[in-house]
Write a structure and sequence with these properties.
With 121 residues, this protein is α+β, with helices and mostly antiparallel strands. It has a single domain, classed as 2-Layer Sandwich (Nucleotidyltransferase, domain 5). The protein is 44% helix and 19% strand. The protein has a 4-stranded mixed beta sheet with strand order 3-2-1-4. A hairpin with a 4-residue loop joins β2 and β3.
């Protein structure tokens, strides 16, 4: 990424997280990180500073079943897995932190799969 593209990404990310902090109501946040080869999701309790649940395309639970970790099908699998793990940890309501990414494609697929898995946001 060029310097200005990276700076704009970080600016969007800060803006999104500030809005989440003001509107979260104490709920944990479902944070998404998207790389060129994988996608990662974490449920983070910011009050305690703990990661409650996490999933990624590198997990053995879904990694072997996927052809690649960088498509919509992989994002759906990660969304369902992180929802399952969050519910097992007692979390049902979260706020969705898309970071600096646009809400479409892999990010949207992960969010929709997490909603179908039982998380509400």
């Amino acid at each position: 990424m060029s310097n200005s593209v990276q700076a704009m990404f970080l600016r969007r990310q800060r803006r999104v997280r500030l809005k989440l902090r003001t509107n979260s109501g104490g709920r944990p946040r479902l944070s998404v990180f998207r790389s060129s080869k994988h996608i990662y999701a974490q449920v983070i309790d910011d009050a305690q500073g703990l990661t409650v649940a996490s999933a990624s395309t590198k997990d053995e639970a879904i990694g072997g079943a996927l052809k690649t970790g960088a498509n919509v099908d992989a994002a759906k699998a990660v969304g369902a897995l992180v929802a399952q793990r969050a519910i097992a940890a007692g979390i049902t309501e979260v706020v969705f932190d898309r970071g600096g990414y646009m809400f479409h494609g892999r990010v949207k697929a992960l969010a929709d799969a997490a909603r179908e898995g039982g998380l509400s946001f």
